[in-house]
Amino acid sequence: MSDVKVGFVGTGGMANAHISQVETIEEATIVAFCDIEEERAKVAADRYGGQYYTDARRLIDETEVDAIYFCLPPFAHTDIERLAAESGRHIFVEKPVSMTVDHGLSVLEAVNKNSVISGVGYQGRYQNAEIALRDYLKDKAIGMVVSHRWGGIAGGADHWWRVMEKSGGMLHEQATHQVDMIRYLAGEITEVYKLSAMKINTDQPNHTIPDAEVVSLKFASGAVGQITTTCALTGGGGSMRTDFMLEDHQIVQLGWGNFEIQPENVDTVEISTDPQLGIDQAFIQAIQTNNQSLIKSSYADGLQSALVSICANQSAEEGKPVAVPQVVS
What we know:
Rossmann fold; 14 strands
C-alpha cells in the first residue's frame, strides 16, 4: 500500500515522542493534528505539516487519514476512539486506554467489528531484556510476583494527574506499566483486592488520589502477587522493581530494561543485542502488511491491563475482592 497517513489527537506529553518517531518512518506521513489547545495543534502542524483541529470528530470526518494516535489523559478517552475505529481508521491509544469497563469494551467491540489494526503504548514489551525474560519464563512455574512503583507527584497544583476522577491514581496511570509487564511475563490476573491510604500528601493542593496503594493479585495460573504504589516521595528516592519467585527456588528481579536471576550463577539468559522493531515502527508496519501480530500490545491487551487497575479501584471503594473481566483470548 502507499504511505500510511497518520493523524494525532493530543499533541502534548507522550504525543511528541510518538510524533518524532513517526516522522522518521519512510512509510508514514503525518497529515493532521488535533488538540483542545488550538495553538499547540497549530505549532505541531506548522512544524510537521498537515491540517490542525480542535475537534477530533472533524479530523476523522474531514481528513484522509489511515491511522490515528490518541495521546490523551485517561479522562479524555471518551467515544472518539470508538468513532475512529467505526470509520475504519487504525488506532494507537496511549495507556491507560480507559477509565471504565463499559467504555473500554465499546472501543474493543468497534476494533473487532471493523478489523482495524490497534496498538497501545506499553513500550516495555519491545525491549530486548523483557523479550528474553518472557521466553525464559514461559515454561517455568511462577509462585508469586511482587512489584512496586514508588515516586512523586506528576505536574503542578492544577494538573489533572492529582485528581482521582481524571487520572485513576498512581496505580492506574503510571504503575499500569508494571501491571502490564506482570501480565506479559506471568499471565492473566483474575482477581484483585486493593487497600489505599492518604496520610502523607495531605499538604498538597488539589490532590485527591491515594498516596499509598497495596493490591493483592490472584493469577489464572494459581500464583499470587502484590503490587504497591506511592506518590508521596516528592523529594526523591523513588524506585521500581518486580520480583518473580520461580520453581527451583529462584527469584528474578526485573528493573526497566534489565533483570537479575538469584542465586547468582544458577542460570543465565542470553539477551539479544539486535535492535528490535520500535513501538511506532511496529504499528506502521502492521498497517502496511495488515499484520496485527507485529504489535505486542493490541487494544484488547491494553484494555486487559487497564481492567486490572479499574477493578482494583472498584475493590478499594467496595472493600472486597473484585474479579477482573477477561477480554484477551
